[in-house]
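Trying the structure run again after the queue cleared.
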Amino acid sequence: GLGYDNIMKHKNGNLYAVDHGGAFHFRAQGDHKEYTPDVNEKHSLVHNNNPSGRVFSELHANHPDAIKRSLETVKNMDMNHIHHLFKTSGLDNWQDLHDNFVKRRENLIGSYQHENV
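Done. Tokens:
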């Protein structure tokens, strides 16, 4: 977050995400945003001009296997379960959101495969 308050450190040393901010068509502060198949956050989350970038770029530097492990988690998602979650969400536009989610997942996996992660 803007105040470095979206990740908290437990007394045991583990880090926990406590606020993921916006979702789909909404930014964390409530403004509208595009929700497209492109995963632009991949770059903005590690750009040092952003608070998140200063955190994540250091994290990735100190734990180079983090991206690979995270990507494996994304690859291993149960897509039938994901479809069910969208379908039963109660959102009127669940199908469009689901379709973009699937495309974003594919684009994310593909972009890192090109980087040999």
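The CA atoms of residues 108 and 114 lie 10 Å apart. Worth checking whether this holds up in the mutant runs.
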